[in-house]
Amino acid sequence: MFPALIHTITYLKGGIFGVPLFHKRESQFSIRTPWGLSFPPAYVDTHSLSRRRKIYSQEKGFRYQSMEKPESDVAIIDYLQDAPLSDSYEAALEALSSLVRQQKHGDQKTIGGKYGKLDRMRMYLKTLDLEERVAGLKIIHVAGTKGKGSTCTFCEAILRESGFRTGLFTSPHLIDVRERFRINGVDISEVKFLLYFWNCWNQLKEHETEDLPMPPLFQFLTVLAFKIFVCEQVDVSIIEVGLGGRNDSTNVIEKPVVCGITSLGMDHTETLGNTIGQIASHKAGVFKHQIPAFTVLQVSEAMDVLQENARELMVPLKVVEPLDSKALNGLKLSLSGDHQFSNAGLAVSLCKTWLQRTGNWEKLFQKDNREANLPEAFLRGLSTAHISGRAQIVHDSSSSISHVSPEVAETSGDLIFYLDGAHSPESIEACAKWFSVAVKGNNQSPSLVLSSSHNIENINVVWKNGHVQHEKCNIQEFNKISKKILLFNCMEVRDPQILLPRLVSTCASSGTFFSKAIFVPSISTYNKVTSGTSVVPSDISSKDLSWQFSLQRLWERIVHGIDTDLLEKSTKMDGAETSPHREFLYEDASNCSPSNGYFACSAVIPSLPLTIKWLRDCVRENPSLRLQVLVTGSLHLVGDVLKVIRR
Around Cβ 145, how many Cβ atoms within 10 Å? Predict the structure, then answer.
C-alpha cells in the first residue's frame, strides 16, 4: 500500500485543505476547492502523481506530506496553523443539520424520485469511488433491538487488543457526532473528520440531481463511515445497523465476514411491524448467502423467522449462550448489567469467526487450543470495552461540598447520575435491574446507612416516600440519607404506558423505590446536529411542556392508582416557579394534591440545565443528602445530561 498524500494550501486562514470556511449565508453549503471534484482520492499511486504534485506546488502554492501512519494527525495539524478550526467544525455540523428530513416515524414516502434507499446508497458510493474499496473491507455487521452498540463495542475492543486496527461505526451519538466513528477505540479527530466530511460533501453536492438528491442524515453518515474506514486502512470494520436491517442504509454491505443479531424486542413498530416475527424478518435482512451468522436466545416466534431466513440463504446460523462469568478468569465485564453477558457471548463468537475466516486465528492463538479458555486478548477486550450512556455511573464533582475530601467525593458523592438510554420495554427492564443492583453498592440499607458506633435510643423509623424520619434518636455518626430520583423523558413515538410501569415494577421487585420523579424536555432538537461545545439554549419561555405533563399524570396514576387532573402551568413562568421548593424532596407521599403546580411524588421542570442546578443546590445545602438519579427513557436525554454536567 502506498503512503497517503495529503495536499493543502500553504496558509489556511480560510479553512483546511483548500476548503474555505463555511458561512451561514451560503444556503447551498457549496464548498469549492482547487480540484474539480474537491479532493483527490485518499490513496493514489505516488508515481502517477509525482509530475502533477510538482505542478501544483509551483503554480498553486500547494505542499504535500507523505503519511506513513494513517493514525497520525501531525502532518495535517502542521498545516492548520491559525485556521479557526472550531468555526469550520460548526460549519460542518450546520451542513449536516440541513440533511435532517422532517419525516414522521413510519413515513415510507420515497426520497429521491425513482431510486430506492439502497439503490441510492450504491450510487453515492459509486460517486465517491468507494464501491470496490467497501467490498474490500473485512466487516462484522450487527443488527438487533437491544445490545447492538454494546456487542459492537465488545467486538472492537477484543480485536483491537488482538493487534488489529479497528473501525467502529455506531449510532446515535450522545454529545458529538464524531463519537459514531472510532478508529482504534478513539473518536475520530476534528481534523480528520473535517477532511473526510468535506471530501464526501463536495463530491455528492456536485453530482446532486432531482433523482439523486443529497442523502438524508443517516445515509450520509453511513457513507462517511465507509469513506473513513477505507482511507484509514482499518483491518476490521464493525458496523452497527441503524434501524431494522433489510432496508437499513448499512445493508449495502454485500459480503461481510460474519453477521450477528442481538436480542429482539418490540421497538420501532411503526416502521418494522407490530409483531416480533415481522421485526425479526427485518433484522434477518442482514443475512447474506452462505455467510456465517450468530444470534442470542430469542423468543420462539422470532427464532423461527430467523432460522427460516437463514435456511433460504444457506446461512449457517448458530445460537450463542450468554458468556459464563467463570470464563473471565476472575475479571469483570467492563459493561455493567447481567444482560451484558449475552452481548459478550455474541461478541466472542463473532470475533472468533472473524479471526478464523480471515486466517488470523491460528496465527495468533495457536497455543490456545482449549475451547474453554478465552485468549488473553479477548479477556482484555471484554474487561476494558467502554460505551457511554449505557449503564454508566457518573459522580457529579460540581455538587461536592468544600469540606468533603476529593477521595470521599469520588467514592460516594452527593449527587450520582446513573445513565442508561433504554427506550424499549425489554431494555427498560434491563436498566431497572442494573440500577437496583448499582444503587445497593452505595447503600447498606435502602435509605440510611449507620456505622457500628451509633448510640441509638428509642428510634422510630417511619418509611414515607423513601424518606426516613427519626424520633428521639441520638446518632453520633451517620452517613448519607439516600434518595432515588427518576429523571425521565422519551420520544412521543414511544409508549410510556408500557415503559414507566415496567420500570417501576422491575425496580420494586428488587426492593428499589423512587422518592421522586422529574420530567424534563431534552435539550437536543431532532432537526439539528450539535457538538459538545454547542450553545445550550437558555430560553425556556417557548417550551411546550404538554408531553412532560402527560408523563407526570401517568406517573402519579402508576404510583398512587389515581387519575389526577393536573393543572398545566403556563409556559411563561416566573423564575421562582420554574423549579420545586427545597421541601419537595421531603414531602409526605400521602400529600398527592397539587401544590403550586407540583405533586408530592413528581415535578415537571421546563429545562434540563435548571434541573441539574436544582439537584446540585439541594445536595450543597444538605450535607447529609445523597441523590441517586436514574436518567433513562432516551439516549438524547442521556447525552444532554452528560453535556450539561461536564461543562
Answer: 24
166 close to 182: Cβ distance less than 8 angstroms: yes
Q: Which among 580, 559, 572 has a CA at the least distance from the CA of 500? A: 559
Q: What is the 3-state secondary structure (H, E, C) of 50-74?
A: HHHHHHHHHHCCEEEEEECCCCCCH
DSSP secondary structure string for all residues of 316-360: -EEEEPPPPGGGGTT---SS-STTHHHHHHHHHHHHHHHHHHTT-
The closest alpha carbon to 517, from 474, 558, 485, 470, belongs to: 485
CA–CA separation, 68 vs 60, rounded Å?
Answer: 25
- Cell numbers at 3, concatenated: 503512503
Tell me the per-residue pLDDT of 486-506, one tens digit each, with 9 for 90 and over.
999 998 888 999 999 999 999
Q: Which residues contact 527 (CB under 8 A, 6 or more apart)?
A: 97, 100, 102
For residues 498 and 16, what is the distance between their CA atoms, to the nearest angstrom? 49
Tell me which DSSP letter residue 375 carries: P
Query: How far, in Å, CA of 296 to CA of 264, rounded?
Result: 9
Nearest alpha carbon to residue 49 among 8, 17, 6? 6
* DSSP secondary structure letter of residue 621: H
Amino acid type, 172:
P
8 A C-beta contact, residue 422 and residue 430: yes
pLDDT at residue 537, rounded to an integer: 61
Region label for 202, one of left (φ > 0), alpha (ψ between -120 and 50) or beta (otherwise): alpha
Nearest to 500 by CA among 553, 464, 454, 446: 553
CA 160 distance to own-chain centroid: 20
Retrieve residue 277's grid coordinates: 416475527
Buried/exposed code over 412-447 (b: 16+ C-beta within 10 A; e: otherwise): bbbbbbbbbbbbbbbbbbbbbbbbbebbeebbeebb
Averaging pLDDT over each range in 272-276, 287-291, 447-451, 575-579, which range is the top one?
287-291
What would the 3-class secondary structure string for 147-205 be?
Answer: CHHHHHHHHHHHHHHCCCCEEEECCCCCCCHHHHEEECCEECCHHHHHHHHHHHHHHHH
CA 133 to chain centre: 27
Could you identify the residue written with the cell 427506550? 423
- Axis-axis angle for helices 496-509, 425-440 (nearest 10): 30
Look at strands 139-143 and 236-240 and give their pairing: parallel
Question: Nearest CA to 447 among 419, 431, 432, 469?
Answer: 469
Bridge partners (DSSP) of residue 141 are: 239, 259
Amino acid at 256: P
Radius of gyration for the alpha carbons in the chain, expressed in angstroms and rounded: 27
Give the residue ranges of DSSP H helices in 22-106. Answer: 46-59, 74-80, 85-97
Q: Cα-flanking dihedrals φ and ψ of residue 143, to 5°?
A: -120, 175
Per-residue confidence band for 540, with pLDDT thresholds at 50, 70 and 90: low
3-class SS of residue 281: helix
Tell me which residue of 264, 316, 262, 263 sits closest to 288, measured CA to CA. Answer: 316
Q: What percent of the chain has pLDDT over 70?
A: 69
Q: d(Cα 293, Cα 319) in Å, to the nearest integer?
A: 9
Q: What is the mean pLDDT of residues 596-617?
A: 84
Torsion region of 479: left, alpha or beta (phi above 0 gives left; psi -120 to 50 gives alpha): beta
